[in-house]
Design brief:
The structure holds 3 protein chains of 3 kinds. By secondary structure, chain A is of the alpha+beta class. Chain A contains 12 helices and 14 strands. In chain A, a hairpin with a 4-residue loop joins strand 9 and strand 10. The longest helix of chain A has 15 residues. Chain B has 3 helices and 3 strands. Chain C folds into 2 domains: about 140 residues, Beta Barrel (Lyase, Ornithine Decarboxylase, Chain A, domain 1), CATH 2.40.37.10; about 260 residues, Alanine racemase (TIM Barrel). Helix content of chain C is about 30%, strand content about 25%. In chain C, strand 8, helix 6 and strand 9 form a beta-alpha-beta unit. The longest helix of chain C has 21 residues. Chain C starts with 11 loop residues before the first strand and ends in a 10-residue tail after the last helix. The chains are: A alpha+beta, B alpha+beta, C alpha/beta. Chains A and C meet through helix 3, helix 4 and helix 8 of A and helix 9 of C.
Chain lengths: ~350, ~80, ~450
């Protein structure tokens, strides 16, 4: 008989700018080696994953990391006592730091995670990426953190327009003029604080790799994908798995050198002259992870097994040419569900 | 002060305004005020009732009550 | 008579239906009812509202954490209390009793340290403002003079010609540590060779004793890595001096700049989660020094001038709510009796403020204003806060650094500062100002009398 694990998952915001929570849960429900009971952890009361059928068995609202790790952990402890989760999978960049810092504490309360180390997390920050490239010998676009609006006029000495303006955690805009940089600076800093990262714009095709490292240098899974259609928020609406061996090589190389632990997404620009620039390293499973499952690599399942201390054999193959097409769907809820969640924080 | 007709507050302190679709949450004393308003009690009656039943002096409550009333008005929950 | 029900201010809050944004589910706000086991209410009754409260227990505990972090990693460590961070004599004496020297940046602070019983050879004299008289005094007392610029270097040369004692000097070095903005206004630059020139000038003069190297790379450093860069650059200078002049310097002074656990404005995660620990700073600095080319048998002493990170947590402001008010657009505002005139740091921190008694689980987006009739007097521009009544008490945390030195007398009089000693006894360590104490400095010309 298959074992049954309770798994807590965040990122249930399955909107047009989706969090990875719902696809992760879907992957886990299709796991071959175990059954699951899912405890959804929601920050907001309208995250679709709360209301979707066959996604969460139980949902709890949790406070944002910006209120402090003490408060968040107090809530997790409360949930832990009731639900006894075996594994917790955080899915937001903005919450990872807090969960990584609390890894030991979570373990003591019986909740396992499989996250990058603080050092791995810190050195791949957008603002640190050039240093990362130098240290591990990867091509990285030139970038620079900016903390004040007054620095924007100086950018022309080091960058050519257009350039990319990026937030610490999320958001990226292409700016053609200093005025646009100022506009995006204000927009992003209001939401995510400073620094804002200015990055050299590299022309080419963006490709992504979803991968999983075992923390010892082994690549357990890696599936490359190219977005086929991109929404106005820059998110994939459709994508297709690729058979580019070079992408796998870069991924394995990076995981081996950094001994990466946990899920990750590499964002890479392939130029017309076949150079590969790493533009971002996301320290978590991406929202399109279900495509990897469809192509034969159930990354969330493998991650759970690693978190539980099992040895996992690396996946050897995946299907090239598998596609995903995202769609939207209106489900019907009732004010009473909304009330219960808003008043009690549980559903 | 008069509450809009179809506004109701649930046992748990959840208030839904069917006119606008907005939802609110109220604490125990806020809930009590809304219940009394629904019973069409006058402001003076409510103030008197609170001073008699709660550990609060009349003047402080009156101050708090009108502040609360201003919020209700601000949220367009009153007529 | 029937017992009355417990009262809580009526509150209604709108539930924002929505997607994750910066805020999200609000955990119930904790309350701070006492400081070092003394009820806040009692402190206010006794010492007035507002008052600064300083916990000696926290000062000593924090100091010893920092000391342990460094001494467990590096053989010779000496702390020097940064006077400008908080130079109340009682506070300085606590640090001195823990073995801290004095780090001063003006003649005024220098005299304060001497009056606190600190011998001249345990005073570090920093900063761009040292008068000729200051330099003479510091030389004669055998203090460590950290030269900031060439004009000072030459003045000290000319002073030393007339004195019997040789000045004991270090230079302050500024450098690129990968942190922006780079602090290049103090000291001599490393990269362009200015620091090396200054060191040569000192060594060639044969009129001063070069005893140390000093840097202070910035303030509120949220990552320890730049300290490692700075420490290795100073170590490299020390090694070069030894090679060229066969002269060993006695200490490397890494200055201060360690962050406290306050949250900077514009930061997403709270400071208490993200600010490095003393262990992390210590690891960066001692690691870099130990791995440098310095002679492992004769390592220089490591000087530290940490101020903020040592004292911020020990200071509190306690006070009372003056009024609650609705702004024109319906937003809640609360006026408290602490203004930016005494809480200077609210210009760059999101200071944590808590009610001093249970205040119910509902809170509202609130702007917290100080009492000044000035538009800039804002303590928190937007914080979820429970509704308090006029006269209710509050506690503001982590105000020990800079506020009691940078504060100003403006519109209101400055309050008392009270120390809670390690046994839980309270002592006024600075009286509140009075009309009399203020006007005693004023003079009215005869024709206006």
């Amino acid at each position: 008989m298959k074992p049954k694990y309770t798994i807590a998952v965040t990122g249930l915001n399955n909107t047009d700018n989706p969090g990875p929570g719902v696809p992760v849960i879907r992957s886990l429900r299709e796991a071959e080696s175990f059954d699951v009971r899912i405890v959804g952890l929601a920050y907001e009361n309208l995250e679709p994953g709360i209301y979707m059928e066959n996604v969460c068995d139980k949902v709890y609202q949790i406070p944002y990391p910006s209120t402090g790790s003490d408060e968040l952990m107090k809530r997790i402890e409360y949930i832990g006592k009731r639900e006894k989760p075996d594994v917790l999978i955080p899915n937001f960049d903005a919450e990872l730091f807090t969960f990584m810092k609390s890894e030991k504490y979570l373990k003591e309360t019986g909740i396992k995670t499989f996250l990058p180390t603080i050092e791995q997390f810190e050195e791949r920050h957008k603002s640190e990426l050039p240093k990362f490239g130098k240290k591990y010998n990867f091509d990285i676009p030139f970038s620079k953190p900016v903390t004040k609006i007054s620095d924007i006029s100086e950018l022309r000495y080091e960058f050519e327009y257009p350039l990319l303006v990026k937030g610490k955690f999320y958001d990226a805009y292409l700016a053609y003029t200093p005025a646009q940089v100022t506009e995006y600076f204000n927009k992003i800093s209001a939401k995510w604080g400073v620094p804002i990262i200015i990055q050299e714009f590299i022309r080419g095709t963006e490709v992504n790799v979803a991968a999983l490292g075992d923390g010892k240098g082994n690549t357990i899974a890696a599936v490359p994908m190219r977005k086929q259609y991109i929404t106005d928020k820059g998110k994939a609406w459709g994508g297709i798995t690729l058979g580019d061996e070079k992408l796998l090589e870069i991924t394995r190389n990076l995981i081996q050198k950094t001994k990466w632990r946990g899920g990750m997404e590499l964002e890479i620009i392939k130029t017309h002259s076949d150079k590969y620039y790493i533009i971002e390293i996301n320290p978590r499973i991406p929202a399109w992870i279900y495509l990897a499952v469809g192509a034969g690599q159930n990354i969330p399942e493998a991650l759970v097994k690693l978190a539980l201390g099992e040895t996992v054999e690396p996946f050897k193959t995946y299907d090239v040419g598998k596609m995903f097409i995202r769609y939207s769907y209106d489900l019907i809820g009732d004010i009473s569900q909304f009330e219960k969640l808003s008043v009690t924080g549980e559903l | 002060m008069k509450l809009k007709k179809n506004i109701a507050v649930s046992e748990s302190g959840f208030l839904f305004d069917p006119n606008t679709g907005d939802s609110f949450s109220v604490n125990e004393t806020g809930k009590k005020i809304i219940e009394l308003l629904k019973e069409e009690k006058t402001d003076d009656e409510i103030i008197k009732w609170f001073a008699e039943n709660y550990e609060i002096d009349k003047l402080t409550f009156e101050n708090n009550f009108y502040d609360f009333a201003a919020v209700l008005q601000n949220y367009h929950l009153t007529e | 008579m029937e017992e009355k029900l417990k009262y809580e201010r009526p509150v209604i809050t709108k539930i924002n239906a929505g997607m994750p944004d910066k805020f999200g589910m609000q955990a119930k706000m904790p309350v701070i009812t006492e400081i070092d086991e003394i009820p806040v209410k009692k402190l206010i009754e006794q010492y007035g509202s507002p008052s600064f409260i300083i916990s000696e227990k926290t000062i000593r505990k924090t100091f010893n954490e920092a000391k342990r972090a460094f001494t467990s990693r590096y053989p010779k460590v000496q702390f020097a209390w940064s006077y400008k961070t908080n130079y109340l004599n009682a506070i300085c004496k606590i640090y001195h009793s823990e073995g801290s020297w004095a780090e001063v940046v003006s003649g005024f602070e220098y005299d304060k340290a001497v009056a606190n019983g600190i011998p001249g050879n345990k005073i570090i004299f920093n900063g761009p403002d040292k008068s000729k008289e200051d330099l003479i005094k510091a030389t004669e007392n055998g203090s460590y003079i950290h030269i900031d610029h060439f004009d000072e270097l030459y003045e000290l040369l000319s002073v030393s010609e007339k004195l019997e004692k040789r000045p004991k000097v270090a230079i302050r070095v500024n450098m690129d540590t990968g942190v922006y903005p780079q602090w290049d206004r103090f000291g001599f630059n490393y990269e362009n060779g200015e620091a090396w020139n200054a060191l040569n000038r000192i060594m060639m003069s044969e009129k001063m004793d070069l005893v140390g190297l000093h840097t202070h790379i910035g303030t509120y450093m949220m990552t320890p890595a730049p300290y490692a860069v700075a420490a290795s650059k100073l170590a490299e200078l020390a090694v070069r001096i030894e090679r060229k002049f066969n002269h060993k310097i006695k200490y490397i002074d890494m200055g201060g700049g360690f962050a406290s656990k306050n949250t900077l404005k514009g930061a997403y995660l709270p400071g208490k989660d993200t600010c490095p620990t003393f262990d992390q700073y210590a690891e960066a600095i001692s690691g870099a020094l130990i791995n440098s080319d310095l002679d492992p048998n004769e390592m220089p002493t490591l000087f530290l001038e940490t101020g903020r990170a040592l004292i911020d947590d020990a200071g509190y402001i306690i006070g009372s709510v003056l009024a609650n008010k609705r702004l024109a657009d319906g937003r809640r505002s609360m006026i408290i009796d602490t203004g930016v005139n005494i809480l200077f740091t609210s210009f760059w921190y999101e200071h944590e403020i808590y009610p001093a008694k249970e205040a119910g689980s509902h809170s509202e987006d609130t702007t917290i204003y100080g009492p000044l009739c000035m538009n800039i007097d804002i303590i928190r521009s937007a914080v979820k806060f429970p509704l308090l009544q006029k006269g209710d008490n509050y506690v503001i945390k982590r105000v020990g650094a800079y506020n009691m030195t940078q504060w100003m007398q403006f519109i209101t009089l400055r309050p008392k500062i009270v120390l809670i000693d390690t046994k839980g006894k309270t002592h006024i360590i600075r009286e509140n100002e009075t009309n009399e104490s203020l006007t005693s400095h004023e003079k009215i010309p005869d024709y206006l009398k």
